[in-house]
Amino acid sequence: MEKSNKPIIKHIPDFLDYCEVEKGLANNTQENYLHYLNKFSGWLKKKGLTSLLPHQLTPEQIWDYRLYLSRTPSPATGKLLSKGTQNYYLIALRAFLGYFVAKDILSIPPDKIVLPKADKGTKTVKFLTLEQIGKLLASVEPKGDISTRDRAILETFFSTGLRIAELVALNLEQFSSLKDKKDMELGIIGKGNKPRVVYFSERALNYIKNYLKIRNNIKNANTKALFINFRDKNEDADARLTPRSIERMVKKYALLSGVPVFTTPHTLRHSYATDLLNQGVDLRSIQEFLGHSNIATTQIYTHVTNKRLRDLHRQFHGDPDKKN
What domains can you pick out in the chain, each with its CATH number? Predict the structure, then answer.
């Protein structure tokens, strides 16, 4: 391996380009890496190590950085970072060191960073009830171009359980033959290049059809995207909506409708899965609907149905000592 004469900090943009071009990672993943590596950059500056080269990074410095993560309160909350959050910063750093390996740049091997065990406890899932979903959807009255598009997006999220990156990747040609269809199956390539089928309800398709009447009349949309940004009038621009735009849109309607402020596109995916479980769909089927590689990932939803069953048990199970 060769020694680089460029400081570690200045390798970060190259690492992000590598993530995009060679690893094919989604934009939001790259943004997350940048966010977590900014912490490492800040620590290097605090220690006066901005000129540190990759091969000069020592195990002792990595240890000092880990201590910094575990003992420094978050500026936003004033609380210490949880073990799980510390892991995110270390995973990003480990991926960064992996980039040095891939580019034959001398540095510490990524496997020298061992992740601590995350805090014990059950991972909770934040989701909306059917009533709250109804309020969220009803807050978007499809009158103009943007509101018609936004309603179609929200209906698609809840009908299919798509991840935000999967929804952004939808193309117009995939919906070219809807006509009189009352429902639709669509093959997509999801996370980890894993193919799966998602299902559009009649209700969701009706809103998509209304949106397509507008979308098909856009002459300057130099893009294959299904969901586009109407505000960009540049004919040469890629009008495909970004994940960040959709996140802002969902947050806007969450505030308008009065549903919990934690609502995000992923909350709608959780709500989709939770509703199916509450309707009696088995966990293996939910796993396929969501495109999870491991059933253990899907099992985070079981606490929802467990609570429901417990409440039903308390309400309806008889007490032999209680008189009718």
Answer: 8-112 (1.10.150), 130-312 (1.10.443.10)
Q: Which of 253, 269, 270, 272 is catalytic?
A: 269
| Statement: residue 197 has pLDDT above 80 | yes
Q: Is 122 helix (H, G, I), strand (E, B) or coil?
A: coil
Q: Higher pLDDT residue, 186 or 217?
A: 186
Q: Could you say which of 66, 83, 103, 191 is catalytic?
A: 191
308 pLDDT band, cuts 50/70/90, is low
Active site residue 292: yes
Active site residue 163: yes
Which residue of the set 163, 215, 240, 270 is catalytic?
163
Residue burial 29-61, b: 16+ Cβ < 10 Å; e: rest: bbeebbebbebbbebbeeeebeebbbbebeeeb
